[in-house]
Amino acid sequence: xxxxxxxxxxxxxxxxxxxxxxxxxxxxxxxxxxxxxxxxxxxxxxxxxxxxxxxxxxxxxxxxxxxxxxxxxxxxxxxxxxxxxxxxxxxxxxxxxxxxxxxxxxxxxxxxxxxxxxxxxxxxxxxxxxxxxxxxxxxxxxxxxxxxxxxxxxxxxxxxxxxxxxxxxxxxxxxxxxxxxxxxxxxxxxxxxxxxxxxxxxxxxxxxxxxxxxxxxxxxxx
Length: 222
What we know:
It is a single chain. This protein is α/β, with parallel strands linked by helices. The chain folds into two domains: about 120 residues, 3-Layer(aba) Sandwich (Rossmann fold); about 90 residues, 2-Layer Sandwich (Alpha-Beta Plaits), CATH 3.30.70.1450. The chain contains seven helices and eleven strands. A six-stranded parallel sheet has the order 3-2-1-4-5-6, with helices on both faces. A hairpin with a 2-residue loop joins strand 9 and strand 10. Helix 4 runs parallel beside helix 5. The chain starts with a strand and ends in a 6-residue tail after the last helix.
């Protein structure tokens, strides 16, 4: 896979290193000359010293042939402009952008990138998903991060033990898609009876995750 990374800071550096280990063809765009020299000594990739918001630099980096263009500079404005150019002018197959400020995620997703990510948002979601003893984990994101596939293993004292799926009051925008019981995966229907220790896999929108978590983490009262 041909990958162009704009931004040679810590994120760009480690990302390039990881992609190299996976045998991808990687090129890095960085505007700071001193940083370019350091990257050239540390990474066995082509370093393009230039401004990734300019067409000439993007062309020199081979963005027109890129399977994936990734903008991870410290400037959301630069990441947005570069993402727009990569998508509209060079038709990169996949465009990913970093949002330093999570408030800019919507703009990046709407106007520039196929996928926009924010470390602040990821950490916040992890904290919000934390449940006492029982934890819901995000397996994958869908629809550019607006929904996700989540899993939670029910504890010994789950209030849902013996409850039919049809009797659960699931929040709008959520759907249980499988139940893993021991070594068996069950494709559930309304008559499926839930048991303690079941691993519940669900699809839910971002707004529904916290409400779904409350339903699935309910415990028996002493």
